[in-house]
Prior knowledge:
Layout: E1 2-6, H1 10-17, E2 22-29, E3 32-37, E4 64-70, E5 77-79, E6 87-92, H2 94-107, H3 115-122, E7 124-129, E8 155-159, E9 163-168, H4 174-177, E10 181-182, H5 185-200, H6 211-217, H7 223-227, H8 236-239, E11 247-252, E12 257-262, H9 283-302, H10 312-316, H11 323-340
Parallel strand pairs: 2-6, 6-7, 7-8
Antiparallel strand pairs: 1-9, 1-10, 2-3, 4-5, 4-12, 8-9, 11-12
Helix pairs in contact: 6-9, 6-11
Amino acid sequence: MKYLLPKNELYSRLARWSAEYSILAPQKVGEYSEFLPFTAQSELCLQEPHNTRYPAKALFFPQSETILKYNRISGQLESAAPESQKRIVFGIRPCDAKAVTLLDTVFAEGDNQDPFWLARRAETFLIGLGCHEPCATCFCTSTESGPFHTEGLDALLTDLGEVFFVETLSERVEALFSELSPAEAAQQEIALAVQAAAEKSLPKVFELDGIKEKLDRVFDKEIWAELSQSCLGCGICTFLCPTCFCFDLVDEAQRGTRVRNWDTCMYRVYSLEASAHNPRPTRRERTRQRLMHKYSYWWEHAGKLGCTGCGRCVRYCPVGLDIRAMIKKASAYESEAQHAN
Ligand code: SF4
Ligand code: SF4
């Protein structure tokens, strides 16, 4: 169904929903925006052309959390898995909603499903806000997504100035919007025009066809030394990536807790083996791993690309390394090598 949500009714509607749901929505923290609980004092940050700094994955897979409590003396174990809770993530961008579905293939499918992820996913509704003015670091149209992509969303909002055009995408959120006025055909046309203009403002930066094969062919070539030359190995690109999911488990024995923390393949110690051998000893191998995981290995383990084009790794890299340029350079290197042979 399609509805109109007047902007001047947004806060009262969120307040009404909050009687039944915890609501998480983008709000300013210093110079960044973050998903925070909505309260009567909240001021939402829905106008930024870019995404929240931390991706929505953190709402399902926190940066650090206790997964197990134990008593070293008695040997008693207690799982710390959360109860399922009714939540609404309001204002999530389409690239982040798509990323959540990509992480479902890691945490919610197959033999080793994660009870923490499943509990948080079960009753969390994703109400998205399309990007009518995508920013310069976004490239979702190149990564099988787009500024109004609907994958993973329960509803999608399009900003039409005084009102949001609301399109519900799942039955389970229909009741949240059913009191609103239905949108007329003319308003739908305006929304479609806004969406088309946003899409057009983001021309593709590369074609995905054949990228996996090209990267596979340059796996052991020198290009990675050039691409990784200025990398500091800080890991920001992976911590803030909505599809990176590596973690480490740490036993805090004094407290009797086992804690799961985000980890990153951009750190030397990540791949350091007990024998002291490291299969990824330099940033050359670690940069290659980051790019190949997104643009090659994801196809193998999930049949999908592992990058949503959210642009966070471009925006926040302290030395300005741009994954778009890196992919294009690796691809061009492969083409030149083919012609030379
Ligand atoms: S690799 Fe970069 S652009 Fe792609 S999803 Fe991760 S942070 Fe976003
Ligand atoms: S954010 Fe930039 S400098 Fe830091 S690890 Fe990633 S690519 Fe390297």
